[in-house]
Write a structure and sequence with these properties.
Elements lengths: L3 E5 L10 H15 L4 E5 L8 H12 L4 E6 L1 H13 L6 E5 L3 H7 L13 E4 L2 H8 L6 E2 L21 E6 L8 H13 L6 E6 L5 H10 L6 E3 L8 H8 L3 E4 L10 H8 L4 E4 L4 H4 L6 E4 L4 H13 L1 H5 L2 H8 L4 H4 L2 H6 L3
Parallel strand pairs: 1-2, 1-3, 3-4, 4-5, 5-6, 7-8, 7-10, 8-9, 10-11, 11-12
Helix pairs in contact: 4-5, 6-11, 9-13
């Protein structure tokens, strides 16, 4: 069986930041569990570290018979797909698209469909993406997001002190809904509920000016804190997440695909208040694993947060079902020998 070069955003031993690095960490581990020899090749932060692109080409030359899985955004890996096409590569190549924008870019002609003619398998996260690619003659397999589930945290007694804990865990960006959450927290404080709830933000800032703006805006809000990056490679990360009551995910990020953070929330037994955006409604089971609110609707977010604070038992009752639902996305149920045979890996 040939080795597999897995090329994309790979965090290595560092904490996972963002959906792509999380997905690739799970993909590498699962392929190895299935007996495959995987050689990770990172393109993470390629603009700051262009030598990683050179290293990827060198790895391809060093392993001429290896199968290739490119699991990354077109922005990060498009050049490599073009290179493999232009050099008439005969390898078995699989492209795992991240986010939901790439199928639209190809369908609109912003990235030539012809560059995928020698890609043997294209993996997408939803049926709508498969249909978009079909309009330009490309076939694709649908594969939802997935997580290794060797550990599900024991559910603690939540809100026992009368304080509801909201968690946000994603990229710290306005389009992820960070500002909306802060504005709603301010309004709830003004309503006199400041002693009844707290909001903990987990995630990486990509812009220093934005970080300074956010830190300043919450500086006079003792019940709203930025907690850095939550390391879910360690069990204690999921234990920490499980201490919260509800996850907030009012994203309107253009490239949002099938957010792995929604699976993380279910694993920790957290229902999610999520925006009606891209695949969120397909993942969140309304009234069972969370609540879907209209996109970019601050009033709706405020009202649901207020309801959680005033009626926490309604949401605490969703915890066990969330963990049960999470098992549907266990890598063992998604990546198996049947699937690997389809992509000839």
């Amino acid at each position: 069986m040939n080795d597999i070069l897995l090329i994309g955003g790979i965090a290595g031993d560092k904490p996972i930041i963002g959906g792509e690095t999380g997905k690739n960490a799970n993909l590498i581990a699962t392929l190895r569990d299935c007996g495959r020899t995987v050689i990770p090749v990172s393109l993470l932060q390629l603009q700051q570290h262009p030598w990683r692109g050179v290293a990827a080409v060198c790895k391809l030359m060093m392993h001429p018979k290896a199968n290739v899985i490119i699991s990354s955004s077109l922005k990060r890996s498009g050049w490599l797909i073009k290179l493999l096409h232009n050099t008439k590569s005969k390898r078995n190549i699989c492209y795992v698209g991240t986010g939901c924008e790439f199928s639209g870019k190809i369908a609109r002609g912003e990235f030539g469909a012809e560059y995928f003619k020698n890609v043997n398998s294209i993996i997408v996260q939803g049926e709508s993406m498969k249909k978009e690619l079909a309009t330009v003659g490309l076939d694709a397999l649908v594969l939802p997001n997935f997580k290794q589930m060797d550990y599900l945290p024991k559910l603690p007694e939540r809100a026992r002190d009368g304080v509801v804990k909201f968690a946000f865990m994603s990229r710290m960006n306005e389009k992820k809904g960070v500002n909306m959450i802060i504005d709603c927290a301010k309004k709830l404080n003004q309503y006199g509920l400041d002693s009844k709830f707290c909001v903990n933000f987990y995630g990486a800032f990509e812009d220093k000016a934005y970080q300074e703006e956010i830190m300043k805006s919450i500086s006079n809000m003792p019940n709203v804190k930025y907690k850095g990056i939550l390391n879910l490679r360690e069990h204690v990360g999921y234990d920490t997440l499980a201490e919260h009551t509800v996850m907030l995910f009012p994203t309107f990020w253009p490239g949002e695909g099938f957010p792995g953070v929604l699976i993380d929330a279910m694993m920790a037994g957290l229902p999610v208040i999520a925006s009606d955006w891209h695949f969120n409604p397909d993942i969140v089971d309304e009234g069972k694993t969370g609540i879907i609110i209209p996109n970019q609707n601050k009033k709706a977010l405020y009202l649901v947060m207020k309801d959680v604070i005033e009626n926490p038992q309604k949401y605490l009752g969703m915890a066990k079902y969330c963990q049960q639902k999470a098992k549907e996305y266990d890598t063992k149920n998604v990546i198996n020998e049947e699937f690997l045979s389809k992509i000839k890996m």
